[in-house]
Amino acid sequence: MPxxxxxxxxxxxxxxxxxxxxxxxxxxxxxxxxxxPCLSAEDRRARRLLISxxxxxxxxxxxxxxxxxxxxxxxxxxSAAPVLTGSHMDTQPNGGRFDGIWGVIAGxxxxxxxxxxxxxxxxxxxxxxxxxxxxxxxxPGCMGxxxxxxxxxxxxxxxxxxxxxxxxxxxxxxxxxxxxxLPRRPLGGKPFAYLEAHIEQGPRLEAEGKDIxxxxxxxxSRWFTVxxxxxxxxxxxxxxxxxxxxxQDALRAISALNTLMHDPTDVLRFTVGSxxxxxxxxxxxxxxxxxxxxFRHPDNAVLQARGDAIPGVIQAALTxxxxxxxxxxxxxxxxxxxxxxxxxxxxxxxxxxxxxRMPSGAFHDAQFVVPxxxxxxxxxxxxxxxxxxxxxxxxxxxxxxxxRVLAEALADLANR
Amino acid sequence: MPxxxxxxxxxxxxxxxxxxxxxxxxxxxxxxxxxxPCLSAEDRRARRLLISxxxxxxxxxxxxxxxxxxxxxxxxxxSAAPVLTGSHMDTQPNGGRFDGIWGVIAGxxxxxxxxxxxxxxxxxxxxxxxxxxxxxxxxPGCMGxxxxxxxxxxxxxxxxxxxxxxxxxxxxxxxxxxxxxLPRRPLGGKPFAYLEAHIEQGPRLEAEGKDIxxxxxxxxSRWFTVxxxxxxxxxxxxxxxxxxxxxQDALRAISALNTLMHDPTDVLRFTVGSxxxxxxxxxxxxxxxxxxxxFRHPDNAVLQARGDAIPGVIQAALTxxxxxxxxxxxxxxxxxxxxxxxxxxxxxxxxxxxxxRMPSGAFHDAQFVVPxxxxxxxxxxxxxxxxxxxxxxxxxxxxxxxxRVLAEALADLANR
Lengths: 416, 416
Description:
The structure is a homodimer of 416-residue chains.
Chain A: H1 9-20, E1 24-26, E2 32-34, H2 41-56, E3 60-63, E4 69-73, E5 83-88, H3 101-117, E6 125-130, H4 143-148, H5 168-178, E7 193-199, H6 204-208, E8 212-218, E9 220-229, H7 246-260, E10 269-271, E11 275-278, E12 288-297, H8 300-317, E13 322-331, E14 334-335, H9 339-350, E15 355-360, H10 366-369, E16 375-380, H11 396-414
């Protein structure tokens, strides 16, 4: 029975815009952005709104120990392994209205379309909202999916703090106690398949005039924190030759890393996105600088070779200070099992949409589901490839097309 | 009548250590530092302690509209222009126990020695604690002395904010209301002379085995704030060639400034001590970076030429972002009138101390007193030239020697 016609473009858009109010703001350029940190009051309000919609559809709600939130449509065979879909609801601090949240809303839209079309699949379908995909408040990202998949023990990040010094463990405890009324489920599971819908967060689909990206895998990521330690001194009296200036040595280190990471093909991604200085006053030489490295590449050989070279390159660049380099996150490039991408490709074609196969430049919770079950993702185009910014935008029609493919693919998988 | 023998080394040291408790902390290396921001609760406690000692000596206390605090020993001719001495009580965030506060305590010690020796000078002697010399909480520094001298109008910095967003005007209002019980005096005055005692904050006296630095002038300072504006993007998907990465362009700007400021003689002082990044998350390309420049030189021609070149050098270094450059502080190099340095030199010699003439590398409140009256400073050595750090240290005997020269010089000036 076709389910795509029951996808409702306006309903999906209205829900997205309602979600965008929660943590919503308008920037100086008039763009409507969202700042919804994981485990915040805004996150909890967004989750309650999602639950209210799910409850109207008769879906059952449950929460696991990492606060991953599940909405379940029962199958005709409740003992069958479920098909899992979803994404995340947290945003970057200066984030947009689509990254993450659309994958959750699209999952709900797909389930509602299935219900309204009269289709009743064999397998249960579960929509998941993974906790802390962005890593914006607590680094690294993907904690919820990493713990769920067993990639990392659930207590790995207990001591991680946010900018206010609140630990992950405390924030999680506070959050779970605020959701004490919701049924609990254990961590983990063994779905039949996982399919995550997401905006592309890159410029390729728009540039090539495609409606749907059939994601074949995710490039690898390595995150590092570098701490450069020198000595503070009076900015007016201390000769430059006698200083141990942490700002100057951090600058030398980043310059050397730029050289290490040089890539004429422009495939490699290298970002220093956070820098903090102590004591951070204009007339004191810096004693300490902490900066982050976000390094990604689809080729594991490059990811390993250049990533492993980082500490040595930094040490060699220093003139007066010392540095410690800590790797906080290391995700190998992953290839998806061909089954889910094939289903996505089939339905994109059947619905008359223009689709292309592509790797994901961003990492996603899907990356950690790969070892657990056949996994896939589908992308829709976003304007100018921009994400993590208030100007992030995807057309209502493009999102509806994505939800139609998702609905058909989920129904297909749930009947296998 | 000699007053130097009445200087009490232990009393002065005990007072300094009592002051060091207010805002005091011990760092990881076991050094006892002080964090006493201007107009903070700690600042107010320190001022009350100073007032308690001054009141025991019968000095009269008054506060001006910038919260500059004055302790006055009456002269035999109360209508004579007073001799002014003092320094400041605020510290850098990670500061030490001697910078600033010693000049105030030494002034009190000198006055007490004069009283105890039975000397009764013709002119009044006033000990001043200038407000916000450091500029650590509210930039720039020397607000109290700049307003007192008429170098800047008193409301110049009303809108300046600290890290918590508190304005200078509000902090000053709160402070003055907490000191509403203290007599008020108008801003400004016309002293006969000003003599400020301070630790050297540099390595020269220690290296050359001298007890006293006879300061002949202060090098010039120019402070700038640079704001680099780009665009935030997803760190995993956005090709480096398409980015407007504010961190990378700030780094190019600082590298270009390093070249501009290169000085083989190592006389020039150039410091980037504060860097802030927005949104400051590891997996977002930086949209905006703000950094500070502290540039100093004793030669006005160099100070003007290289300082004026800063905006152009930054603009030329940018590849994708824009930048705005704001000059926040501009103090010309100043030469002291020869009178006060000659008095200091006479008494250092008369007391058998080893002295040398030298310019000041740091700026000081004395700089702004220069146009008002004959001005001078005396330095004592500090360990390894370190200041603005918990390891800042000066020997009790060195500080006592400085206080003896100060006491004799003040008594001498006050009898002229």
